Amino acid sequence: MEHVLLVVSGPSGVGKGTIVKTLVKRREDVVESVSCTTRAPREGEKHGREYFFLTKEEFEKRIEENDFLEYDEHFGNFYGTPKSFVKETLKTKSVILEIDVVGGLNAKKEIPQTVLVMIAPPSIEELKRRLIGRGTESKEEIENRLARLEYELSQKDKYDYVIVNDDLETAIRDLESIIDGKQSLK
Ligand code: 5GP
């Protein structure tokens, strides 16, 4: 059985992190790639778990060394997918990247077999409420994220699959079926 590179995107607060983390815990043959970022860690975040937190200089050095499958800037900070980790891991496991739509489309340019999955909310109004209620970001950050939300969702036609996160367990199963379907095709 061959392995799949899967991008999971969707607006902030849609629940993509929970879906991906639960699936990865259940499946030994699927891992999540840890991205690098120059943003400061939020409370409770750990270097090497949520992200590799780098200085701008360290990040720029990695760009020069061509060490990112893709990278992008959001809200004044850089985010990038470590290329060597992804390529090495794909030899033995499927890999999930939890990144935004621009990053997803760029990853697919680099690795055309990449499968793009968008997680959409059952209701945009409900998502806005959830995002504001999360309480981990400043008011300015929340406004940035709300503006970004509509853009992310408007890109869903460019994606291979859209999963509506109405029920967590169903959404996880939908994602698993995509992985299993692709693996069995190879
Ligand atoms: P946050 O700061 O909330 O963790 O992430 C902000 C945005 O950066 C999210 O849209 C997230 O999907 C995106 N992001 C996280 N890692 C990467 C990455 O490696 N590459 C790109 N292009 N975007 C990323």
Summarize the structure.
The protein is of the alpha/beta class and 186 residues long. Helices cover 44% and strands 23% of the residues. The protein has 7 helices and 9 strands, in the order E-H-E-E-E-H-E-E-H-E-H-E-H-H-E-H.
Strand order of the largest sheet: 2-7-1-8-9
Determine Rg (CA atoms, Å): 16 Å
CATH class: Alpha Beta
By helix and strand content, what is the structural category? alpha/beta
Folded structure, characterized:
With 186 residues, the protein is α/β, with parallel strands linked by helices. It has a single domain, classed as Rossmann fold (3-Layer(aba) Sandwich). The chain is built from 7 helices and 9 strands. The protein is globular. The mean pLDDT is 92. Bound molecules: guanosine-5'-monophosphate. Guanosine-5'-monophosphate (5GP) binds next to β5 and β6.
